[in-house]
């Protein structure tokens, strides 16, 4: 079976590598066409290029007459792995013009591949360099015209090409899906409430109302105020009654019976609500014990 280099040597097509030998730096390019596998070598910072190739006849000579179709592909895969790993060596190196050098793939392999290189004329070297720049510029269009694309550009380009294109349907065109409502501030910041806010949330409505700073508190001496108001109202009624009958004072029994009865009922209710004063309680505050004072004793001056 005839060897088709373009398909059988696909593993070494459009490869590029840099190798270092001492203080020298070489650039190596690999191309596979239908008729030959071609290698180009350039010396860095110089206009000098060398070229060498393998034809189907060279491949048959290397593999032998009893080769199998799988042997050609296996050889190409092995050469591609050597190339990408940088297992390359420029042999018989000489900077003389027209010197014959060679490129060895797998110099430490059991059976290395050695290809002879011939230096190109300056015009041919320039033409080849221009064709390589044209290829680089064409491929750079996929990465926003970057000669050296960043890893992000490679990832975004591959993900964008692999993603399936959205298919427009009648339902999606007429009624787009509603946007999700943003979370309410209370729910968004619920985990970050302070201890005071948590305590306030656990209180009952009555307790929370009492704890508000603006809520008026019921005075402690409300019942005392009611008794005082009733006493003042009783004194006013006495004065009115005395003025009506021309006397300075009069017994309570001479007042209007309905008024007297109302005053007595309210007074009794107020007195019942007053806290009872226990033994030893304070006169000013019956709910608290009275303070005890110890008499100060002075030593006799004698």
Short description:
The protein is of the alpha+beta class and 302 residues long. Among the domains are: 5-120, Beta Complex (Dna Repair Protein Xrcc4, Chain: A, domain 1); 222-273. It contains 11 helices and 7 strands.
Layout: helices, strands, pairs:
Layout: H1 5-8, E1 15-21, E2 24-32, E3 37-43, E4 49-54, H2 56-63, H3 69-84, E5 88-91, E6 101-105, E7 113-119, H4 122-140, H5 151-162, H6 170-174, H7 185-188, H8 195-202, H9 205-211, H10 222-245, H11 257-273
Antiparallel strand pairs: 1-2, 2-3, 3-4, 4-7, 5-6, 6-7
Biased composition (Low complexity): 156-174
Biased composition (Polar residues): 202-214
Biased composition (Basic and acidic residues): 258-269
């Amino acid at each position: 079976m005839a060897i088709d280099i373009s398909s059988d040597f696909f593993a070494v097509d459009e490869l590029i590598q840099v190798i270092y030998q001492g203080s020298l730096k070489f650039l190596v390019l690999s191309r596979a066409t239908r008729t030959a596998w071609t290698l180009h070598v350039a010396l860095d910072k110089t206009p000098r290029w060398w070229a060498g190739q393998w034809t189907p006849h060279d491949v048959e000579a290397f593999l032998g007459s009893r080769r199998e179709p799988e042997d050609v592909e296996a050889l190409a895969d092995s050469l591609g792995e050597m190339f990408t790993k940088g297992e390359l060596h420029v042999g018989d190196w000489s900077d003389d013009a027209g010197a014959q050098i060679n490129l060895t793939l797998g110099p430490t392999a059991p059976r290395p591949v050695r290809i002879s290189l011939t230096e190109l004329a300056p015009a041919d070297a320039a033409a080849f360099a221009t064709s390589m720049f044209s290829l680089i510029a064409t491929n750079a269009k996929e990465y926003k015209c970057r000669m050296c694309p960043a890893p992000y550009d490679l990832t975004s380009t591959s993900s964008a090409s692999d993603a399936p294109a959205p298919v427009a349907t009648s339902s999606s065109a007429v009624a787009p899906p509603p946007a999700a409502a943003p979370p309410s501030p209370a729910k968004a910041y619920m985990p970050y409430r302070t201890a005071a806010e948590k305590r306030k949330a656990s209180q009952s409505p009555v307790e929370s109302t009492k704890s508000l700073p603006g809520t008026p508190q019921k005075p402690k001496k409300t019942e005392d105020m009611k008794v005082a108001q009733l006493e003042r109202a009783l004194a006013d009624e006495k004065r009115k009654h005395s003025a009506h009958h021309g006397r300075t004072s009069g017994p309570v029994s001479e007042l209007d019976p309905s008024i007297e009865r109302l005053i007595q009922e309210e007074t009794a209710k107020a007195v019942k609500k007053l806290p009872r004063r226990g033994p030893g309680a304070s006169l000013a505050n019956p709910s608290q014990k009275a303070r005890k004072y110890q008499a100060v004793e002075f030593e006799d001056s004698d």
